[in-house]
Amino acid sequence: VPRVAKTVYVGGEAGEKFLKSIGLVFELKTSLDPLAPLTVIAPDAVVSPQALWSYVERGGCVFFLGHPQGGVDYFGAKTVLEKNFRGSTTPPGEPEFAGLSASDLRLKTDLDWRTLSPEGMPGLQRLADGMLGLRKQGRGEAVWAQLGPDLLQGDKKELPEYLRFTRWRQCRAISQILANLGATFQADARVFRPQIERISLAGPWAVKMTSELPPVEGKHAD
Predict the structure, then answer these.
(1) Do the beta carbons of residue 87 and residue 113 sit within 8 Å?
(2) Burial, 177: exposed, middle or buried (Cβ in 10 Å; 0-12, 13-18, 19+)?
(3) pLDDT band at 22, cuts 50/70/90?
(4) What integer pLDDT is reported at residue 108 of this predicted model?
(5) Is residue 152 over pLDDT 90?
């Protein structure tokens, strides 16, 4: 997927910190930028639903970070709290979710989890047992991902040790989806535009023995 010219984030400090931790290149805004092809929106963002869907209608792409509270109206998509939820083993086949596997979506234990409700927004595709959602409107689209550290952590200050690998997989899944939508990451330059650093070895060298090696013995001593 070609990289978009600009990715904008609208939301609070928690979402900003998370996006920085996965290396996303973005601009922080307090409102929608009509010139940004891709916008990431956090649950605490203050955005007019009318302005949001007008932005999508004109060709904008929106990615919603996971909402940690069940039963809310998240820009038209409702979330419900499921008890003893183990995640999903059915990654979607849509191109927005290319590269995801069951390992990215399984929780590997029973948890209370917020998933997208099958009721509510017309045209919303509820995917991966409610962990993902997709809605196309006009020339644009909106993607929901009920994934991320905030959902794993719940009310606890620290993430339980046994969920750390699950957290890593979910962060990878969010990065994959954003890359599919055209986002740029800080690590991209090292992969697509590597800089070759050359160090000249000409001239005298300064050498210092840091640890003395024992003398070599045996037939290979010479």
Answers:
(1) yes
(2) buried
(3) very high
(4) 81
(5) no
Q: How much is the pTM?
A: 0.82
Spatial strand order in the sheet of 27-29: 27-29, 7-10, 38-41, 61-64, 140-145, 132-137, 125-127
* Torsion angle, alpha carbons of 19, 25, 27, 31, to 10: -50
Q: Which tokens is 106 given?
A: 């399984």
pLDDT tens digit string along 93-124?
A: 999 999 999 999 998 888 889 999 888 788 89
Q: Cα–Cα distances in Å, from 81 out to 48, 98, 119, 122, 157? A: 25, 27, 13, 20, 20
Helix (H) or strand (E) holding 51: helix 49-57
β-strands 106-120, 7-10 pairing: unpaired
CA distance 151 to 25: 23
DSSP-based three-state secondary structure for 41: strand
| 64: exposed, middle or buried (Cβ count in 10 Å: 0-12, 13-18, 19+) | buried
Report CA torsion sign: 40, 183, 68, 97. Answer: positive
In 3D space, the residue among 136, 122, 124, 147 whose CA is nearest the CA of residue 181 turns out to be 136
Q: What is the pLDDT of residues 52-65, one digit of tens each?
A: 999 999 999 999 99
